Amino acid sequence: MNNRRVCTVSQLSPFQSEEVEEKIGKVNDHKQLMGFLSGAGGIWKSHVIKTTCQYAQKLCKATGVKFDKRTIVVITALTGAAAVSINGETTAGAFAFKRKVKDELEEFKNTYVVIVDEVSFASVEDMELLNEKMKQIFDNPWDPFGGVPIVFSGDFAQLSPVGGRPLY
């Protein structure tokens, strides 16, 4: 039986909150999180993403960290319909594939996590472009996706990308 004591962020002292924030900030110092949330259509992957964002907002509020659409979680999707379903934006829109990188350095300076929904719609070329763009934006050409923790979500049994080579 697990006897660990569970507490919420709101129960932490200011010192403890500072420690939590420091530890969370250091997670990426050692290893980049790269995750994949998968499952058949209708199993609530989008709900998991929304709930994760709600939790991140509450955590930020409790620890005094600013939360906006770029600070903790950049919610993106490859199609407009998928973006609407998670209150997000398209990957191309979020990372402005046609804008210059220097215009985005300030906008993304506090990004901690990127979530890409409906990844089955991505082509190999889409992923290569996202990888290169994130390396430029986050000024890290050595690590995949600029070293930023990234979670992909989708179902590869659904539709393939239009006009490109599928990832699978």
From TrEMBL:
Recorded superkingdom: Eukaryota
Keyword vocabulary terms for this entry: ATP-binding, DNA damage, DNA recombination, DNA repair, Helicase, Hydrolase, Nucleotide-binding
EC number: 5.6.2.3
Cofactor: Mg(2+)
Enzyme's top EC category: isomerase
Catalytic activity: ATP + H2O = ADP + phosphate + H(+)
Ranges for domain DNA helicase Pif1-like DEAD-box helicase: 14-162
Residues annotated as signal peptide: none
GO biological process, one term: DNA repair
The keyword Membrane belongs to this UniProt entry's keyword annotation: no
TM ranges: none
GO MF annotation terms: 5'-3' DNA helicase activity; ATP binding; hydrolase activity
Keyword Hydrolase: yes
PANTHER family for this protein: ATP-DEPENDENT DNA HELICASE (PTHR47642)
Family named by the database record: Belongs to the helicase family.
Protein name according to UniProt: ATP-dependent DNA helicase
